[in-house]
Amino acid sequence: MLFLTQSAAVYGIDALIVDIEVNLQPVPKEGDSAPPFTIVGLPDTAIRESRERIKAAIKNSGFFFPFHKTTVNLAPADVRKEGASFDLPVALGILGAGGDLGDIEKAGTILSIGELSLDGRVRPVRGALSIALAARENGMTDLLVPEENATEAAVVQGVNVYPIRDLREAAGLVTDLCGPQVPLLRPLTLDLSKFRSEDTKYKADFSDVRGQQTAKRALEVASAGGHNILFIGPPGAGKTMLAKRLPTILPPLEFEEALEITKIHSVAGLTGKAGLVRERPFKSPHHTVSQAGLIGGGSIPRPGEVSLAHLGVLFLDELPEFDRSVLEVLRQPMEDKQVTISRAASSLTFPSNFTLVASMNPCPCGYFGSTRECNCSPMQIQRYVGKISGPLMDRIDIHIDVPAVKYKELRGKGTENIEGSGTVRERVIRAREIQNRRFGGNGIYSNSSMSAPQIRQYCELDQESEALLEKAMQRQGLSARAHDRILKVARTIADLAGSEPITPSHLSEAINYRSLDRNYWS
Known about the structure:
Layout: E1 2-11, E2 14-26, E3 37-40, H1 45-60, E4 68-75, H2 87-97, E5 110-112, E6 115-116, E7 122-123, H3 128-137, E8 142-146, H4 150-153, E9 160-164, H5 167-177, H6 213-225, E10 229-232, H7 239-244, H8 255-267, E11 282-283, H9 291-295, E12 296-297, E13 302-303, H10 305-308, E14 313-316, H11 324-328, H12 331-336, E15 338-342, E16 347-351, E17 355-360, H13 378-385, H14 390-394, E18 398-401, H15 407-410, H16 421-439, H17 452-458, H18 463-476, H19 480-496, H20 504-512
Parallel strand pairs: 3-4, 5-8, 8-9, 10-17, 10-18, 11-14, 14-17
Antiparallel strand pairs: 1-2, 2-4, 6-7, 12-13, 15-16
Helix pairs in contact: 1-2, 6-16, 6-19, 18-20, 19-20
């Protein structure tokens, strides 16, 4: 007997519908050995090993495992499948082929995913949101998912999402869905109006940082426009402290942004029971991270840190300590806002529109240019600084010197009026609202993502500003990329000021954020 069920496989951040065909062929007579149970269709090791899990789950759930030659085909057969999410649909297919689910004609509109334990319980899987979106696009009306993945999948409207705890519950639900009776289990419904990111109460606050007004201002500009920023200063000046407080001034997520982030985190198995991600991600990989860990990889590529930081912050502390080859792979995702991973069998693209925040010391000992004596030779300093290539530095919009904090500032003398994260965040939100109106919701969320035609359209300069920019380009030897990034930063500064035109003062501040460059170590 032949029976068909539906499931899905995740590739990149999207899902592909997989037809699971189960055929039971009678054997001449019962012998001492069980008939073969074969799974075909390019399964990986986890899927091939699922045969024993499925057998045990069916028997321990009170069903009879048919004494037949069992063949399971995962179609399309030319696409490799991986993971344990096919356990539940294969088990349902075997039960349907054996007649345990009754006469089912509507099974083709039901899609299921889930890993089975030996006692029949259904365990969570990765990529539930992507699978729910694929189910809706392919006309599937009902989706059976593990209970832990239900909130995440139910974000997708137009599909009935049923949280499943075990195989017996799934089998009963499929029988009810394909029969005349109304299922006892009701689909999970969510009020998406409550899923907008709220003003989260952070333990850290901008007011914790003493002094460093220039660095704080630069961080505000970076937050408002999504610009990359580099802090350079001696140990203990507050570089890491500033970077870790960046999330407290970022604007809340819009629903479309939250959906994009959740898809990536779901594929990586990081959503858990939370469902939709409500906060912007903050990723801080250690300097020993590999290229695959940072960019993504694997036989079937999965997202790396740059994609997990999509629409959030990627913080690289002690930038020169990272392997140079690892840093160089950042250049393409920083420019294109996406990363493409190519393998012999496939090529997948992950979004990576992140804000890079990096910090570094000016020299190996960390005290060059500060009040303490530096013991580094010029050659050591050049070798240390040389770990950061010119093309990578050129892609960082804002370079800020973070000097040591003065004693009076550190002890809070005259700092009663320090702004907290809430005040700064209000200004950032107002600037982002201006940008949202400007770009009209066409997938661009900040000034840093402007294209060349948009720069020409929205970053017009008057005669005085033109002369100022030309002079800066000639004196500092800035590249064409630096020219565009200065204009983007100037546009953000004008937005923070509520100004439609870019004035010379806005442009001058943006130019100053680039003037540090290599001259810092000359």
